[in-house]
Amino acid sequence: MTTAPRQAAGPDATKSAPGPVPRHSAHQRQHPRNDHRTLRRVLTQLLPLSPALILLLLFLAVPIGYCAYIAFTDLQLTGQAHSSFVGFENFRTAFKDAEFLNAVWLTLVFTVLSSLVGQNTLGLALATLMQRASKPVRTLTGAIVITAWVLPEVVAGFLLYAFFRREGTLNAILDWLHLPSQNWLFTLPILAVSFANVWRGTAFSMLVYSAALDEIPQEITEAAEVDGAGGWRRMWHITLPMIRRSIGTNLMLNTLQTLSVFGLIWVMTRGGPGDKSQTLPLYMYEQAFQNSMIGYATAVALLLLLVGSLFSVIYMRLLRTEV
Q1: Measured distance CA(52)–CA(48) in Å, rounded
Q2: 3-state SS class at 133
Q3: Within 10 A of 271 (CB to CB), how many other CB atoms are there?
Q4: Cα–Cα distance between 134 and 283 in angstroms, integer?
Q5: Tens digit of pLDDT for each residue in 231-268?
Q6: What letter does residue 3 receive in the DSSP assignment?
C-alpha cells in the first residue's frame, strides 16, 4: 500500500492559501449607507416637531439673543441717535450699584418667604388636610384658594393693598381686637408683598400636592398606621419621600414664577417706601422706562435670567439624583 507523497509546506504555500476577508473592510463599505439611513430617520422624526422648533426660535431664541446683544451696548430710550458696544461695562456698573445689590437681596428674601416657604408649605398643608376633610369642606376650600389664583395680578394687588393699607381691613380687625395697628405697607413692605404672593399663588402648590398625595397607595399608609406610626412620622418617613419629585417640580416652577413677579408689587407699593420692596423686576422697570437706560436694564434682566437658570439647574440635579 502506497501513499501519495506529502507536499512540503513552504513560503509559496502560505502565500497561495486564501485567508478570511477582513470584517472592517465590509463594515467600511456599509458605513456611509448606515449614516444616510440614520440621518433620514432623524429628519423624519424631527419633521413633525419643526413647526414648534421654528416658533421657539422666532419667539424665544431670537428675542433672547437680541436682548443679549443689547445688554452689551449703551442703548437708551431717548436722547440717543446711535448705540455703541460697551462690553461688560453694564454688568460692572450693576455690581457697583447699591440699589442693584439691594434689589438682589430683596428678590431673594421675597422668593424664599413667599415661594420656598410660604406657597410650598401652605400648599402641602392644605392638600394634606383636604385629604381627610369632608366633601363640602374640600369644595369650599378649593373654591376659595383657586379663586385667589385665577384673579388677575393687578386685581389681586388692589385687594391686598386694601387689606394692608393704614385704613384697611387688617388694621380694622386689629382695632376691633384692641391690638396695636400700623401702616404695614410702610413699616414692613417686603413682608406684606410676600404675604400677598403667598395668598395668590398657594393654589398651584395645593393642586400639585393633591395630585401627588392621591398617587400614594392607601395600603402603605394604613400599614404604617397599624404599626403605630403617628401623623408626623407618616408624613416624614412615608409621604414626603414618596412625593419628593413633585416637591422638586413645584419648587422649581414656583421659584421661576416668583422671580418674575412685577404687577403685584407695583400695585401695592411701587417698590417703596424708598426701595424697601424694590425687587429686580421693579428695578429693571425703573432703569429702562424712567431712567431710559435700556442697555443697562437689559443687562440686569440677563442677570435675573441667570439666577433663574441657576435655580433650575439645582432643582434638576436634585431630581436627577432621586431617580
Answers
A1: 8
A2: coil
A3: 22
A4: 46
A5: 777 788 788 888 888 888 898 889 989 998 999 999 99
A6: -
